[in-house]
C-alpha cells in the first residue's frame, strides 16, 4: 500500500485560508444563512462548506471562491466591472511577457 504524502503549506497560506474561512462564516452568519442553505446555493456539501470555513487548504479553489462571493466577501475587486478591468490589465501585461520560462542551459563561451 502506497504511503499518503502530506503537502506542506507556508504560514502565510495557512493564515490566508483561515482568514477566508472566518470571513465566509461571518458573512454567512450576518446574512442569517444556515450552513446547509449556503452549501445548497453553492452546489457543495455541508462538509465541504465546514472545511472551507475552517481554512482547509485541500478544498477546491472554485468552491471556496463561490462561497465567498455568495456571502459578499470581496476578494479582488468589489464589482464585476472592476474585476473585468483588472483582468484585462493583467492580460495586457501577460501579452508582453514570454509565453514560457526556460532555464539557461549554460554560459556561452565566445572567447575565441
Question: Can you give me a brief rundown of this structure?
Answer:
This protein has helices at residues 11-30, 35-42, 46-53, 61-70, 80-96.
Q: Might you state the CATH topology name?
A: 434 Repressor (Amino-terminal Domain)
Tell me the number of helical segments per DSSP (H or I, 4 or more residues long): 5
Please state the oligomeric state of the protein chains shown. Answer: single chain
The number of strands is: 0
For the biggest sheet, the summary is:
none
Secondary-structure-based class equals mainly alpha
At CATH's second level, what is the architecture?
Answer: Orthogonal Bundle
Describe what you observe in this structure.
By secondary structure, this protein is mostly helical. It has one domain (11-96): lambda repressor-like DNA-binding domains (434 Repressor (Amino-terminal Domain), Orthogonal Bundle), CATH 1.10.260. It contains five helices and no strands. The longest helix is centred in the N-terminal third of the chain and has 20 residues, at 11-30. The chain is elongated, with a radius of gyration of 21 Å. It starts with 10 loop residues before the first helix and ends in a 16-residue tail after the last helix.
Topology:
Blueprint: H1 11-30, H2 35-42, H3 46-53, H4 61-70, H5 80-96
Helix pairs in contact: 2-3, 2-4
Features:
single chain, 112 residues, mainly alpha, 434 Repressor (Amino-terminal Domain), elongated
Amino acid at each position: 500500500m502506497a504511503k499518503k504524502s502530506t503537502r506542506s503549506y507556508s504560514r502565510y497560506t495557512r493564515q490566508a485560508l483561515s482568514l477566508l474561512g472566518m470571513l465566509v462564516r461571518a458573512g454567512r452568519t450576518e446574512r442569517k444563512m444556515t450552513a446547509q442553505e449556503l452549501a445548497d446555493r453553492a452546489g457543495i456539501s455541508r462538509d465541504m462548506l465546514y472545511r472551507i470555513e475552517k481554512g482547509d487548504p485541500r478544498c477546491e479553489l472554485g468552491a471556496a471562491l463561490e462561497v465567498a462571493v455568495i456571502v459578499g466577501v470581496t476578494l479582488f475587486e468589489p464589482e464585476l466591472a472592476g474585476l473585468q478591468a483588472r483582468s484585462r490589465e493583467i492580460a495586457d501585461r501577460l501579452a508582453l511577457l514570454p509565453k514560457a520560462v526556460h532555464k539557461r542551459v549554460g554560459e556561452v563561451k565566445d572567447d575565441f
